[in-house]
Amino acid sequence: MTAINQDQKEFWNGNGGSSWVSGQEEMDRFLAPFTEQLMTHAVPAKGERVLDIGCGTGDTSLKAAAAVGASGSVHGVDISQPMLNLAESRAAGQGASHASFAEGDAQTDTLGDAADLVISRFGVMFFEEPTVAFKNIHAHTKPGGRMVFICWQPVRENEWVHIGLGIAKKHVEFPPPPDPYAPGPFAFADIERTLGILGDAGWSNAKAEPFATKLNQGSSARDAAESLMLRGPISRVMMDKTDAEKEAVLSDLTDAMEAKMVDSKVLLGAGVWIVSATA
Fold first, then answer.
1. How many CA atoms are closer than 13 Å to the CA of 187, on its beta-carbon side?
2. 250 to each of 219, 226, 230, 278, how far by Cα in Å?
3. How many distinct structural domains can be found in the chain?
4. Which of 62, 229, 251, 252 has fewest C-beta within 10 Å?
5. Domain contains 239
6. Does residue 236 lie in a domain region?
């Protein structure tokens, strides 16, 4: 296991996973526009078997489970056990016995029975070897099966990212910029490269559709700023900063969020790619 891959697993089984679990309802609301787009494009049908890559706390898996019904099934895979624990609890609470969850790495692990449909909401950009991962996913998809996933467009198209980064960089030192193609939220922002990876992995008819929206970051400027600090793109950098540095960033970020209030909501621009392909 390489250092990058291990880093991802440690983060999502540590502070990264626990912060998502504690903010599950908030994150589901924040990501709701993309969940809707994912389901609209994927169109899970009654009786189908769905594989959800990077299923997290189970929001997309449970929506797919409702669509395929008891005659179908959904299998969610993630590297974060804390998030999977919550997904299993939510499924039990909804009586979704046809939704199952397992800790696993889509790059190398067995992903259950062959799927009719593969979905992912921001769960595929963290692969250290994306071609290997998509080959493995392809091997777990029925011939002619389809895949739909959502990944972020470049940072410049995502206000919810660059507004926080700009403010944080005024107060704290950031590490050198990573390789833009290294595992991370924006690893698939170069969509031509991403489509090329899918082709190399054996997928056909790969295409991408842009989608832009405004994300509801919360009902108060302070809550929105705190959420970006805890679960946004600056969270990992701010984790080990001093209380004074954190408060300075939080204060300026709160002021910035105040300027983004519309009808008692903090709305921030976001852009994604909706990618589809056929096995």
1. 16
2. 16, 7, 11, 44
3. 1
4. 251
5. no
6. no
Distance CA 61, CA 74 (A): 6
pLDDT tier, 2 (very low <50, low <70, confident <90, very high otherwise): low
**What is the CATH number for 102?**
3.40.50.150
Q: What is the residue-wise DSSP string for 80-141?
A: -HHHHHHHHHHHHHTT-TTEEEEE--TTTS---SPEEEEEEES-STT-SSHHHHHHHHHHTE
Q: Residue 1 has what pLDDT?
A: 44
Residue 38 resides in a domain = yes
Domain with 33, as residue range(s), is: 3-156+177-213+271-278
How many helices (H) and strands (E) the chain has is answered by 12, 8
- Among 66-70, 158-162, 273-277, name the one with the lowest average pLDDT: 158-162
Q: How do strand 49-53 and strand 265-278 relate by DSSP bridges? A: unpaired
On whether residue 244 sits in a domain, the answer given is no
